[in-house]
Amino acid sequence: MEPILWFGWFRADIIAEYGVMFWRGLQMTILVTTICIMQGTALGLAIGLARLADARHSPARQICRYLLRWPSTVYVSFFRGTPLFVQILLIHFAVLPLFINPADGLLISGETARSLKQNYGAFISGILALTLNSGAYISEIFRAGIQSIDRGQIEASRSLGLSFARTMTHVVLPQAFRRMLPPLGNNAIALLKDSSLISAIGLAELAYTARTVAGAYSRYWEPYLSISFMYWTLTLGLAWAVKKLEARYGRGDTR
Amino acid sequence: MDEVIRVEGLTKNFGQLQVLRGIDCSVRSSEVVCVIGPSGSGKSTFLRCLNGLEEASGGRVLVHGVSVHDNSTDVDALRSEIGMVFQRFNLFPHMTVLDNITLAPTKVRGVPLEQAREQARALLIKVGLLDKIDAYPNQLSGGQQQRVAIARALAMQPAIMLFDEPTSALDPEMVGEVLSVMQTLAEEGMTMMVVSHEMGFARRVANRVLFMDEGVLVEEGTPEEIFDRPREERTRRFLSNIL
């Protein structure tokens, strides 16, 4: 087939030929990012609260310190202090086989484990690593957001008889969320881009597709420039969505 | 008369600093008690110990006979009986005036929303702010915010209202509107404990005035006794400094 030459040197026919694969890769990138944003936010909230847990009386005081604050601090320190790429490799090649293994998996073993690992291994490890990693970063956003709320807000709510949990859900978190939106948006964008690292363990997302195409044709401009524009479009879309949310939740904010 | 609050040997330390050094007093139903004294004398800390916002270091506080600082006490239920108004209003900025007032009755008491809203309207009429019902706190002046804060505390139909320097953060021209709402409350028989620098209010409205200095209750009596014939030298010195 005679190649169609766009811009003289850009062989768009390669992209067109692998169109379906790029489309699937794009879907996989969006799927992984979406799942990790949601799970990472839930995990980040839990860890952020754990890092702030305190009580006035023992034994609750000791429980908060040794079972909540201390482990969550170590967790955040580890996942922020080591490269995400290393975390992905560690989880995929060391942690996951420990739990899902045909011979002696701690969680799942036998034939189920074999097929699960073959079909979804990279997917599970990738999502796990990215969730754990972003959870650590998001927990810091939650912690800072919650701590930024004036103590007087908590005191007013508690003195009305609202419990700690209700004070959090009705008074503190709604206000903190507004302030957390910009850093959460930045984090979501970082997560979207970081999802490309999962290609290293063979998950067929955008970066993996580009690598495959590059390998097949020994052409590098076309696939990598193409996915660059796809990532760029996605991050612009995310930034726009965050801006919309900020406008919506800005009611009553004095700052 | 029915005793609402009883304080026995209350002490409070912040680390090495002794803020309260053994306070004894009681407040009876429908009484208006003003607490005066120099700044740093422990007035606010004292008030905050009454609803457990501050942990007591020693002694005890009984509200309707229930110990506030006891571990087994349901402090949330107790606090819903004690209204508190803060120096800096502390309205919830992300909620409208109406939602600020209905939050606690609906969430803590389980009052149906419509009923809570009806009550909120009645309270806003009382503090003269019905037209601000849908406003957000940052759209209100300081005096208006404080009146909403009073309405919010009243919505729980508390047995006693605590006021922690309610006019200290206000511009002078807004002090009057807040004090007049408080005076109306007092005339209606609300039990009140007011930490304030408003000596005029204390003289006019209080049944009893407590003078605090350096963490102790130096002197207490009727407004006339405290302001006109103070027995203690420290009271005299404080009053001559501010009047």
Query: Could you describe the largest sheet of chain A, including whether it forms a barrel?
Result: none
Identify the strand order in the major beta sheet of chain B: 6-7-8-3-9-10
**What is the CATH class of chain A?**
Mainly Alpha
* Percent range of helical residues of chain A: over 70%
Mean pLDDT across every amino acid position of chain A: 91
The CATH architecture category of chain A equals Orthogonal Bundle
User: What's the CATH H-level homologous superfamily of chain A?
Assistant: MetI-like
Instruction: Categorize the overall geometry of chain A.
Output: flat
How far is it from the N-terminal to the C-terminal residue of chain B, by CA?
A: 34 Å
Give the H and E element order of chain A. Answer: HHHHHHHHH
Keywords:
heterodimer, A: 255 residues, mainly alpha, MetI-like fold, 9 helices, B: 243 residues, alpha/beta, 6-stranded mixed β-sheet, 4-stranded antiparallel β-sheet, 10 strands, 38% helix, globular
Secondary-structure topology with pairs:
The complex is a heterodimer of chains A (255) and B (243).
Chain A: H1 12-17, H2 19-52, H3 60-81, H4 84-99, H5 111-147, H6 151-159, H7 164-194, H8 206-217, H9 221-248
Helix pairs in contact in A: 2-3, 2-5, 2-8, 3-5, 4-5, 5-7, 6-7, 7-9, 8-9
Chain B: E1 3-14, E2 17-28, E3 32-36, H1 43-50, E4 58-63, E5 66-67, H2 75-79, E6 82-85, H3 97-109, H4 113-126, H5 142-154, E7 160-164, H6 172-187, E8 192-195, H7 199-205, E9 208-213, E10 216-221, H8 223-228, H9 233-242
Parallel strand pairs in B: 3-8, 3-9, 6-7, 7-8
Antiparallel strand pairs in B: 1-2, 1-4, 4-5, 9-10
